[in-house]
Amino acid sequence: DTGVSQDPRHKITKRGQNVTFRCDPISEHNRLYWYRQTLGQGPEFLTYFQNEAQLEKSRLLSDRFSAERPKGSFSTLEIQRTEQGDSAMYLCASSHDRADTEAFFGQGTRLTVV
Amino acid sequence: SQKIEQNSEALNIQEGKTATLTCNYTNYSPAYLQWYRQDPGRGPVFLLLIRENEKEKRKERLKVTFDTTLKQSLFHITASQPADSATYLCALNTGGFKTIFGAGTRLFVKA
């Protein structure tokens, strides 16, 4: 297993365009998380999946954001009608289904909205 | 409001010295606390986890303490090396699935 994989690593898009990011978690991990990180800040929680069920969405996630994990394996995060404020690093993490366990992060997708 | 505070200023130390990073929190009752390392342009990497009933945890040159009365965790790197230069993130979990991160402290170790 090569760890959590995210694609693409970098994305530059024009304001108003839609973008989609993909995350492939570690195969035996039930839990999958999306975080957003801006410069000088820690990762901010966006949403969480337990297998294919999306169990929580942060209020940071406006209606323009949607995430899926259709078969409980890979996940996608889509941002519609991108705005400059969406520019950030989007991080995906996965973990075992236990409370006291570490999360394994991917390398992130750096989004720049111009 | 709930808050996690880490030293916002960078920590500069000489190689071989012990680096001590602080994480303070308010209005949380964390079941456990984690420390992660993050290098520029990369995702965080897990280092240590300490539970609310544990006072101290060690792993090689790393040591974490957890004082639930002071609402504080200290993270120590002994015999620091230039390769330890990175941002270190404190993260809290209150027992559920959500982990809340601090903003991190940048550490620079000079040779």
Task: Please tell me about this protein's structure.
The complex is a heterodimer of chains A (114) and B (111). Chain A has 114 residues and is mainly beta. The model of chain A has no long low-confidence stretch (mean pLDDT 93). Helices cover 0% and strands 49% of the residues of chain A. Chain A has strands at 5-7, 10-13, 19-24, 31-37, 44-50, 53-57, 65-68, 75-79, 88-95, 104-105, 109-113. In chain A, strand 5 and strand 6 (53-57) form a beta hairpin. Chain B is mostly beta strands. Chain B has no helices and 11 strands. In chain B, the strands form 2 sheets. In chain B, strands 2, 4, 5, 9, 10 and 11 form a 6-stranded mixed beta sheet that branches. In chain B, a hairpin with a 6-residue loop joins strand 4 and strand 5. Chain B is globular, with a radius of gyration of 13 Å. The A-B interface holds A 4, 31, 33, 35, 40-45, 48, 50, 55-56, 91, 93, 99-108, 110 and B 4, 31-32, 34, 41-46, 49, 51, 89, 91, 93, 95-104.
SSE topology string of chain A: EEEEEEEEEEE
| Count of discrete alpha- or pi-helical segments spanning 4 or more residues of chain A | 0
Distance between the termini of chain B: 41 Å
Q: Helix/strand/pairing class of chain A, anyone?
A: mainly beta
The string of secondary-structure elements of chain B, in order, is EEEEEEEEEEE
Query: What percent of the residues of chain A sit in helical stretches (DSSP H or I)?
Result: under 10%
* Bulk shape of chain B: globular
Number of helices of chain B: 0
Report the oligomer: heterodimer
Overall outline of chain A = globular
* Proportion of residues in extended strands of chain A: over 45%
Strand content of chain B: over 45%
